[in-house]
Amino acid sequence: MPNIAIVPAPASVTELPGDGFTLGAQSSISATGDSAEQLSAAAAVGEYLGELLRPRTGFELAVNPLGADAAAPGIRLVIDDSAAPGYSLHADADGITVTAASAEGLFSGVQTLRQLFPARIEAALDGSTRVSDDVEWTTPAVQIEDAPRFAYRGAMLDVARNVFSVAAVKRYIDDIALLKLNVLHLHLTDDQGWRLQIDSWPRLTEIGASTSVLGGGGFYTKADYTEIVDYAASRFITLVPEIDLPGHTNAALASYPELNIGGVATEPYRGVEVGFSTVDTTADATWRFVEDVVRELAEITPGPYIHLGGDESLQLSSAEFSAFVSRASEIGAASGKTVIGWHEMGQSRELAPGTIGQYWDFVTPRADAAPHTLSFVEQGGQVIMSPSDVSYLDMHYPDTDRLGQLWADGPTSVEEAYSWEPTAIVTGLDEAAILGVEAPVWTETLDGIDDVEFMVFPRLAPIAEIAWSPAPAGVPGAAPDAATRSFAEFSPRLAAFVERLDALGVRYHRSPELSRR
Amino acid sequence: MPNIAIVPAPASVTELPGDGFTLGAQSSISATGDSAEQLSAAAAVGEYLGELLRPRTGFELAVNPLGADAAAPGIRLVIDDSAAPGYSLHADADGITVTAASAEGLFSGVQTLRQLFPARIEAALDGSTRVSDDVEWTTPAVQIEDAPRFAYRGAMLDVARNVFSVAAVKRYIDDIALLKLNVLHLHLTDDQGWRLQIDSWPRLTEIGASTSVLGGGGFYTKADYTEIVDYAASRFITLVPEIDLPGHTNAALASYPELNIGGVATEPYRGVEVGFSTVDTTADATWRFVEDVVRELAEITPGPYIHLGGDESLQLSSAEFSAFVSRASEIGAASGKTVIGWHEMGQSRELAPGTIGQYWDFVTPRADAAPHTLSFVEQGGQVIMSPSDVSYLDMHYPDTDRLGQLWADGPTSVEEAYSWEPTAIVTGLDEAAILGVEAPVWTETLDGIDDVEFMVFPRLAPIAEIAWSPAPAGVPGAAPDAATRSFAEFSPRLAAFVERLDALGVRYHRSPELSRR
Fold it and tell me: GO biological process: any one (chains A, B) (predicted)?
């Protein structure tokens, strides 16, 4: 077992001489900060850590927001204005100190801290795990300096094709927080279902929410949505809501005839085809609809982004499509939010300035995917990289077709999910033009969060490492001593990571690519 | 490993001398019957069996509805008017013959037949299982005579507290078919959600379906409902829909003010308390509501039963409650269906004749549970036994509190789920008065079918055996040579059963009570 096995890999890990820290019944969690606000924020991160560590250890782990006991052996969470970006972590026999300039940095440090303890420290204390009394909860002695490579590190969950409870989404938020992801993109609408209450267009949920691929319907009330937003915020995760336009809209088209070319409502749809639906881009009703939906969505979305789709619009001419997304992006920007669109939206040269593109073509771009993607940068925006043949985590695993699909260039192995580089896909798209990396999971075949976890783990861990860890050797701007990204090096860390999933009760695919430890 | 390990235990199992049957690439499934209709029905059961056995074996297993190849080694499914109730099964080196007087009997026989083959014959052929080329698919040589003890063998799924996709319900139907259960009771409405489209009262789903305990909403359209009914019928399972009245109605009360005492709609509810809601039993609107819902429900329900609840009505006086359930039962009966109600409904002495009671008090009845239950029999009906302290499968397991609740007299062990006798609970309720046995699973804490499977398996297997297998020694009417029900005898068969769940990918709790084989 490697002594230190952290996913995603920190920027710098230095093993220290001497013993590490042993958590004991007398240990406390102290929080310090330069202001009352920082103190309170650090204490909240400490409370989160306490909730992780208390059940299995049985220790009290009181959170001391004054930091007065800082001399006692324990965990010290420090917010310090002068700290470097990211966090630093020092662990030795006297305790563990995590220092960051912000609560978000501390929270990232806590995700590393978790992984320094044996995985079973996070097992539920429900009597199902045998507990030996002589367990020692000891970390290695280590100094870590760490900061994220990309600002946007996302996971997308498709809650349109099938229905997921609020509790399921919260569980997914906890799952992705462990990997230092900081964005949850919810794909809220598609042909098969409209999943968000919109007061001014109630039939969107009365009719548009009544279907799903696997049968039955459902939607989130605004109270549900806010509950998700708030829970994500408590994990320093920004919610990015997506309303997919002008295609992927059958659920809306079935709800309101006036959105349709020809003015006749479509039938509700439960199949898995794409590209067949579009709103009537010339209808006044369509623009009232877009304005109302964007306004109501922006009102309940504290984060900076709203995603307006733009993918696979196959029923419109290029000119019609460009005109639509241009106007839609302006409506989005007027709501005070930065618009994100799938890369096809870059066909328009008249997007709201700063619109963000999300690339979902393959690692080797086809057709116009590259120029459409560069178009966002040329219009003052950045790009999120989600190459579908390596980061769409609903693709089959190579060794099982139990769940998922195949269309994105066949199955995706764990090694393939790890073996790509965001700056090496679209020529001319350099590090500064890339806002971040996101792994979507589409749910046509997935029923509930267990199925999602099966598809996503372990492959989300490689994606998170690409998003967080330093640029590898060979990438322009990489550190002079940067290592080459190596699956052989990653693999034992991944094996340690899935031990933690086992302890947490998170489902994952026991892929033959997981090396034994 | 016991050679023959079938759950639920057949009435009679005789090991035969000589070899059993080995399924091979040349094996076929032949179907015979006394009429074209029977031939077609037998062939449909054969096709179901073929779908189970083909993926892992890779054999063609053609279904021959003419029975012309009956001489060839293979599986023969025979419908014969003169056959005894239930089915008989004969397996030797020449083949396996299942004989029954009906397709339903054949289907029961096929569930036994599955369990004669090694469990791994049902594993998905998805590359995730290692296949050795020398596997022989051989059964023991055996003669089995079998018929169910009780006509009604049910499982109840609460789809009101949380939302389950149609696909999830279908999976549960397949799960329970393996145990020869023949009723799926869907608890469609409760305080936290109304889950069925009712055209004449659309706000029931527009508002009443928008909540669930774990967040998010959802409901079944009539098309969804019919899809479930039809799938259940293909497994010889009758769907029993429940509309819970007059309590457990907050979702309806939040949708329509006129159903409320005082005429003001309640707030939607996501908590887990019970007993606080009631419709206004004196309002004309309430009776229009009951008549409309019952009429629409009966129209889409081909089975003989509708369940009208009646439990935990704590806001009405006994007289008010009795008057309500009396009139509701008459409305149900007028729809052409036999009404089922929880045992409290027996407070009324003016139920529609033949109304069925469902007992959910403890194995040792408290308060008025026994007289209320006997009341159904006195009014010409029968009783379904669901004692909550042994058959409510959402109760905690003794060794984990990960999911479920505790209120029904604490946790329920696998042995407790096995160690009760339906005729020994309510004094005076004899074998003939008991229509059957049902195991409910309430879903306040359960998110998706994986959570349901975890709570239900392995404990549903004991309940199914109580419902199907012959009365044990000591029960009036038991066979003279009947054995005593013994967990020590059951336990190795249960261990064999969960091996099949492993092969099928059905989740279950790896209880320490599961003996190793």
Answer: carbohydrate metabolic process
Contact with chain A for residue B212, Cβ under 8 A:
yes
Residues 6+ apart with CB under 8 A from A99: A78, A79, A80, A83, A87, A88, A89, A109
Is residue A258 flagged as an active site residue?
Answer: no
Mean per-residue pLDDT, B283-299: 98
CB of A210 closer than 8 Å to CB of A251: no
> Has residue A68 got a pLDDT over 90?
no
What residues contact residue B299 under an 8 Å CB cut-off, 6+ apart? none
Sheet arrangement for strand A74-79: A12-15, A142-146, A87-92, A95-100, A74-79, A28-32, A63-64
B276-288: per-residue pLDDT in tens?
999 999 999 999 9
Instruction: Specify whether the CB–CB gap between B279 and B253 falls below 8 A.
Output: yes
A75 contact partners, CB below 8 Å, separation of at least 6: A23, A27, A28, A29, A30, A46, A49, A95, A96, A97, A98, A113
| B355 in contact with chain A, both atoms CB, cutoff 8 A | no
* Chosen CATH of B12-146 out of 3.30.379.10, 3.40.50.970, 3.40.640.10, 3.40.50.300: 3.30.379.10
Mean pLDDT of A148-168: 97
The CA–CA distances, whole Å, from A437 to A279, A367, A462 equal: 30, 22, 11
Beta-carbon contacts below 8 Å between A and B: 135
Which pTM was predicted? 0.90
Is A277 within 8 Å of A253 (Cβ atoms)?
Answer: yes
Domain layout of chain A by residue ranges: 12-146, 152-477
Catalytic hit among A47, A104, A291, A312:
A312
Shortest Cα distance from A220 to chain B (angstroms)? 5
Question: H or E segment at A474?
Answer: none
Query: Degrees (nearest 5) of the Cα angle B330, B336, B342?
Result: 55
CATH 1.25.40.10 fits B152-474+492-504, yes or no: no
Say yes or no: domain A152-477 is CATH 3.40.50.720.
no
Please say whether the beta carbons of A376 and A382 come within 8 A. yes
Which residues contact residue A431 at a Cβ distance below 8 angstroms, ignoring those fewer than 6 apart? A423, A471, A475, A476, A477
Structure tokens that stand for A57 in this block: 């250890």
pLDDT digits (tens, 9 = 90+) for B424-476: 999 999 999 999 999 999 999 999 999 999 999 999 999 999 999 999 999 98
